[in-house]
From TrEMBL:
InterPro entries in the record: Initiator_Rep_WH1, WH-like_DNA-bd_sf, WH_DNA-bd_sf
UniProt record similarity statement: Belongs to the initiator RepB protein family.
Domain Initiator Rep protein WH1 residues, every copy: 31-172
GO biological process: DNA replication initiation
Protein name from the UniProt record: Initiator Replication protein
GO terms of molecular function: DNA-directed DNA polymerase activity
Length: 427
C-alpha cells in the first residue's frame, strides 16, 4: 500500500448510523437485549459521515411519519462545516449516501432473527435552495431510536478532521456512563473503523500506529470524553481491545467551540453584544464570510440616528450596503426589517425550546431502555400488557405494538408509566 493510499484511508471511515447498536449481532450479551446492529457497507469520507448525521438529526422527529424531509441547503452546508455556496460538493456527497448500503441484523421481540438491507437514502434532490431527501420505510423504523439522536451533536462532530476519529468517538460515547466499551476483537474493531479487508492493517503494529493512536488523540483533543485503549493478548499476539472512558472536564457537551474558533472572534462577540442570536450570527458568517460581516458592522457604526443597529445591520448584510455608494434604506425598509427582526427572535426562541425538548425526550427514552433491559422476561411481558391496557385508543396501541417502548406517539404515556412504576426513575 502506498503512503497516499494510507493517508486516504485515514480520512475515510465506515459510517456507523447507530454506534450504540453496531456490535449487537457480534456480542452475545447485547443480542440478548434485542438490540439491532445497523451499519453501512463501504466507506464514506468524513464530510459524508457528518452529512448523514445532520440529515438524520433534521429528520428525527418525523422519521417514521413523513414520506420525505427538507432542509435549507445553505443551512445544511453550514452545519456540516463547508462553503455554503459549494453545491457541487453537496451533490456529490448526497449521491454517495444514496449509493451506500445500510445493513441490519437483529432479534425481534419474539427472538426471531431479522436481517435487512437498504440504501442509506432512498432519494435526495436539490431545488430552489432546498434539499429534500427520504429514507426507506424499513430503514426509518430501525433508525428511530432515541439513543441515535442523543449521540449526534453537530458542534462536536465539526471539530473532527478524520473519519477514524469521528468513528471511534461515536462508538465510545454511549459507554461514558459505564466507563468502558468492553472488549472488542480486533476483527470487530477493524470493521468499526472501516479498514476490514486491508492486509496492511492485519498487523496490530500498523493498526495501532495509523489508526488507534491518531484517533484516540483526536477524540481526547476535540470531544467531551477522554479515552484510553487497553489490549488483551493470546500468546504474544494482541487479540482484543477496549477503551476506558471518562468525561472530559475541559469540553462541556453543549458549550464546545466551533472548530474555526468562531465564538472567540471579535465579529462574533460584537454581534452577540448587539443582541443578535448565536444561530443568526453563525448563519451570517457561514453565508457571507467574516470579513463581509465585519465590513457591514463598520458601516452601521458610522451611521447616525440608527434606532436599532441590529435591525439596520440585517438590512445592510442582505442588501450589501457600502459607504457613499448605496443609498440609505427608506423608512419603510427599516420598518420591514424591524418586523422581520422580531419574527426572527420569536423563531429562535421556539427553535431553542424544541431543541431542549428533544434532548430531554432522548434522555428519558434512554433511561426507559435501561429500565426495560433490567427486567426479566416475565416482567417485560407484564409491563407491556399493563401499558397497552392503559392506552385509550387503537391508534396508540397499534403504534406501541410496532415500536414498543420507543414509540414517539406514546412518549408522554410511556414516561408517566415508568415514573409510576419506578418513582424517581427520571430524576
Amino acid at each position: 500500500m502506498t503512503r497516499t493510499q494510507s493517508r486516504q484511508e485515514n480520512t475515510m471511515a465506515q459510517a456507523t448510523i447507530d454506534p450504540d447498536q453496531l456490535t449487537g449481532a457480534l456480542r452475545r450479551d447485547t443480542v440478548r437485549k434485542n438490540v439491532a446492529a445497523i451499519h453501512i457497507s463501504g466507506k464514506l469520507t468524513l464530510l459524508q459521515r457528518k452529512l448523514s448525521n445532520v440529515l438524520l438529526l433534521n429528520a428525527y422527529d418525523t422519521l417514521t411519519s413523513a414520506a420525505s424531509h427538507t432542509i435549507d441547503a445553505r443551512t445544511l452546508a453550514m452545519m456540516v462545516g463547508y462553503n455554503s455556496n459549494d453545491m457541487d460538493t453537496l451533490r456529490a456527497s448526497l449521491r454517495a449516501l444514496a449509493e451506500t448500503v445500510a445493513e441490519w441484523d437483529m432479534l425481534d421481540e419474539d427472538g426471531r432473527q431479522e436481517w435487512g438491507v437498504s440504501s442509506l437514502l432512498s432519494f435526495a434532490k436539490l431545488k430552489a435552495g432546498v434539499c429534500e431527501y427520504a429514507y426507506s420505510p424499513a430503514l426509518a423504523q430501525k433508525l428511530h431510536d432515541p439513543k441515535i439522536y442523543a449521540l449526534i451533536n453537530v458542534h462536536i462532530q465539526r471539530n473532527f478532521t478524520s473519519g477514524h476519529g469521528l468513528a471511534l468517538y461515536e462508538n465510545c460515547y454511549r459507554f461514558v456512563r459505564t466507563g468502558s466499551t468492553g472488549w472488542w476483537t480486533l476483527e470487530v474493531f477493524r470493521k468499526l473503523m472501516g479498514v476490514e479487508g486491508s492486509s496492511y492493517y492485519e498487523s496490530y503494529k500498523q493498526l495501532n500506529a495509523k489508526i488507534i493512536k491518531p484517533a484516540v488523540a483526536e477524540v481526547n483533543k476535540n470531544s467531551d470524553i477522554l479515552i484510553t485503549p487497553e489490549v488483551r493478548k493470546k500468546g504474544r499476539a494482541v487479540s482484543d481491545i477496549r477503551f476506558l472512558i471518562s468525561e472530559n472536564p475541559q469540553l462541556a457537551m453543549f458549550n464546545i467551540d466551533d472548530s474555526d474558533g468562531l465564538r472567540n472572534s471579535d465579529v462574533y462577540k460584537s454581534l452577540i453584544g448587539q443582541g443578535v442570536s448565536d444561530r443568526l450570527v453563525r448563519q451570517w458568517i457561514a453565508e457571507h464570510g467574516e470579513d463581509y460581516v465585519a465590513e457591514k458592522l463598520t458601516y452601521v457604526s458610522q451611521q447616525k440616528d440608527v434606532k436599532s443597529p441590529a435591525n439596520y445591520l440585517s438590512v445592510a448584510i442582505r442588501e450589501d450596503y457600502k459607504p457613499r455608494v448605496d443609498p440609505e434604506p427608506s423608512p419603510e425598509a427599516i420598518e420591514q426589517a424591524e418586523k422581520r427582526w422580531v419574527e426572527q427572535q420569536i423563531e429562535d426562541q421556539e427553535f431553542d425550546a424544541r431543541q431542549a425538548e428533544r434532548v430531554e425526550r432522548a434522555r428519558k427514552f434512554a433511561i426507559v431502555a435501561d429500565l426495560v433491559a433490567q427486567r426479566n422476561p416475565t416482567q417485560r411481558d407484564a409491563d407491556k400488557r399493563l401499558f397497552v391496557a392503559s392506552l385509550d385508543d387503537e391508534l396508540s396501541r397499534a403504534e406501541f405494538r410496532t415500536f414498543g417502548w420507543t414509540s414517539a406517539l406514546n412518549a408522554s404515556a410511556i414516561f408517566a408509566f415508568w415514573e409510576e412504576l419506578i418513582p424517581g426513575a427520571f430524576d
